[in-house]
C-alpha cells in the first residue's frame, strides 16, 4: 500500500504558497497546485483533497509527491512536454528581432506586428509571440534627458545629502511652481462610469483662464505650503518666500531645494535672501527635475484632481487646488528618499554610455 508523503512547511514556504493560491494573476494550474500542498500540510489525505478541490486523485498524488521531492521548485515549473519543437518560429526569430531593433518602415517611426508580418511574409501571431518572448515593445517609448550641468555631481551630492541626512534645527523643503494651470470646462456634461461603461468627457473644452501654483513640501512631515498667483515672476516668488517665512517656526533654518528657473536667481530675490539669513537655497542640476520631490506632489495633484476636473472660472480651479492641499495636510506623510549618490551616478553612467554608444555606432 502506497502512503502519501507527509508535508511540513516552513513559514516562508507557507507564505509563498498562500500568495500563489490567492493571486489573481497567477496561472490557474499554479493556484491549484499551491492549494493541494497547503491542504496536504494541514493533514488532509489525498482523497479529501481531491473531493474538496474537485480534481482527480492521481493529480493530487502527483503534485504532493513533486513538492515533497523538490519543494517550491517542483510545482513552480512544469516538466518538459512532448511534441515537436517550433522549428518555423526558430527560423524567423532572428529576422524578426533584427528587423524590429535595427530598421524602421518607410512611412512610420516604428514597426507594428501587422506591418512587420507583412514585410517578412509571416503570420502576425508569430511576430507577436517573438516580440513578447524577447521583451520587445516597439510601440512604447520613455522620456529621459541626461543633465549636462558641469557641476552635476556636486549639486547631486548636496541635494541627496539633505534628503538622506537633514541638518539639525532645520527644515528641508522642496519648492517649485506649477505654472499656467488652465481652468478648463467641458463643452458638455460628463457621464459617470457605470457597470460595463467607463466615464466620459468631451474631447473639446473651453478655456477660462490660468493660475500658477507655488508650493513647498517639507520632507520630515510631508506638509505642504502653497499659494496660487496669477503670474510667476520674481515678485510672486518673493511673496511665496515670505509665506514660507511666516508659516514655519522662526527659530529653524530653512533649506530650500529649487530648480534653475531664472526667477529663482533674480537679483531682487538674492537681495531678499541676503536679508533673511535663515534661508539656504540649494539648486538641483539642470535637466534633473526628478531630483525635486515637489514634482511628485504636482503629478499627484494633476492626476487625482485636475486632469478630469471641469472648472468654469479660475476661482473654482484655485478652490479645487486648495481643497486638495488641505486634505493632504490633514494626513501628511514624510518623504522617504532611498536612492544614494552612488546608485544615481551608476545609473546615469550607464545611460550616458548607452547614449554615447548609440551616437558613435
The largest β sheet comes out as: 5 strands, mixed
Strand content: 5-15%
CATH topology of the largest domain: Nucleotidyltransferase, domain 5
Low-confidence stretches: none
CATH homology-level superfamily of the largest domain:
Ribonuclease H-like superfamily/Ribonuclease H
> How many domains, as an integer?
3
**Structure class:** alpha/beta
CATH class of the largest domain: Alpha Beta
SS field, number of helical segments: 14
The beta-strand count equals 5
- Described by the principal axes of the CA atoms, the overall outline is extended
Task: Output the strand order for the largest sheet.
Answer: 3-2-1-4-5
H and E order: HHHHHHHHHEEEHEHEHHH
- Specify the CATH architecture of the largest domain: 2-Layer Sandwich
Tell me the radius of gyration: 29 Å
Mean pLDDT: 88
What is the CA–CA distance across the termini? Answer: 69 Å
Helical fraction equals 40-55%
Amino acid at each position: 500500500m502506497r502512503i502519501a508523503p507527509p508535508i511540513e512547511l516552513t513559514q516562508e514556504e507557507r507564505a509563498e504558497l498562500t500568495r500563489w493560491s490567492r493571486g489573481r494573476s497567477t496561472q490557474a494550474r499554479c493556484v491549484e497546485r499551491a492549494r493541494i500542498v497547503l491542504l496536504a500540510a494541514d493533514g488532509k489525505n489525498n482523497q479529501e483533497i481531491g473531493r474538496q478541490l474537485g480534481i482527480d486523485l492521481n493529480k493530487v498524488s502527483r503534485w504532493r509527491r513533486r513538492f515533497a521531492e523538490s519543494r517550491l521548485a517542483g510545482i513552480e515549473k512544469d516538466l518538459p512536454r512532448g511534441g515537436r519543437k517550433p522549428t518555423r518560429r526558430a527560423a524567423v526569430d532572428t529576422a524578426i528581432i533584427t528587423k524590429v531593433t535595427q530598421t524602421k518602415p518607410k512611412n512610420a517611426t516604428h514597426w507594428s506586428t501587422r506591418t512587420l508580418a507583412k514585410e517578412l511574409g509571416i503570420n502576425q501571431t508569430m511576430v507577436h509571440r517573438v516580440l513578447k518572448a524577447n521583451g520587445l515593445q516597439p510601440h512604447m517609448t520613455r522620456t529621459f534627458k541626461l543633465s549636462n550641468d558641469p557641476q552635476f555631481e556636486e549639486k547631486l551630492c548636496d541635494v541627496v545629502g539633505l534628503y538622506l541626512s537633514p541638518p539639525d534645527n532645520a527644515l528641508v523643503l522642496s519648492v517649485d511652481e506649477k505654472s499656467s494651470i488652465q481652468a478648463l470646462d467641458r463643452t458638455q456634461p460628463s457621464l459617470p462610469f457605470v457597470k460595463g461603461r467607463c466615464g466620459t468627457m468631451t474631447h473639446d473644452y473651453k478655456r477660462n483662464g490660468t493660475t500658477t501654483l507655488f508650493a513647498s513640501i517639507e520632507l520630515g512631515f510631508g506638509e505642504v505650503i502653497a499659494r496660487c498667483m496669477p503670474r510667476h515672476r520674481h515678485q510672486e516668488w518673493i511673496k511665496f518666500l515670505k509665506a514660507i517665512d511666516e508659516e514655519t517656526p522662526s527659530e529653524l533654518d530653512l533649506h530650500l531645494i529649487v530648480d534653475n528657473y531664472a526667477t529663482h536667481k533674480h537679483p531682487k530675490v538674492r537681495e531678499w535672501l541676503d536679508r533673511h539669513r535663515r534661508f539656504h537655497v540649494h539648486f538641483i542640476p539642470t535637466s534633473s527635475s526628478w531630483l525635486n520631490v515637489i514634482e511628485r506632489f504636482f503629478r499627484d495633484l494633476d492626476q487625482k484632481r485636475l486632469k478630469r476636473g471641469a472648472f468654469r472660472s479660475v476661482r473654482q480651479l484655485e478652490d479645487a487646488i486648495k481643497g486638495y492641499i488641505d486634505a493632504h495636510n490633514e494626513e501628511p506623510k514624510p518623504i522617504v528618499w532611498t536612492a544614494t549618490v552612488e546608485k544615481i551616478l551608476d545609473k546615469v553612467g550607464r545611460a550616458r554610455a548607452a547614449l554615447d554608444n548609440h551616437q558613435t555606432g
